[in-house]
Amino acid sequence: MTLETRNFIAGLWQEGATTVVNRNPSDLSDRIGHFAQADAAQLEVAVQAARHAQADWGATGPQKRHDVLMAIGTEMMTRAEEIGRLIAREEGKPAAEGKGEVYRAGQFFTYFAAEALRQLGQTADSVRPGIEIDVRREPVGVVAIISPWNFPVATPAWKIAPALAFGNAVIWKPANQTPASAVALAQIIANQDLPKGLFNLVMGAGRTVGQALAQSADVDAISFTGSVPVGRGIAASAIPNMTKLQLEMGSKNPMVILEDCDLDLAVVHATNAAFGGTGQKCTAASRLIVHERIHDAFVDKLMVAAQALQVGHALDKDTQIGPVVSAEQLSANLDYIECGKQEGAELLCGGTALDRATEGYFMAPAVFGATQNTMRINREEMFAPITCVIKVGDYDQALHIANDTDFGLTAGIMTRDLARATHFRRNARAGCVMVNLPTAGTDYHVPFGGRGASSYGPREQGRFAEEFYTTVKTSYIHSGVPA
Question: Which of 444, 473, 455, 446 is nearest to 161 (CA)?
Answer without folding.
Answer: 444
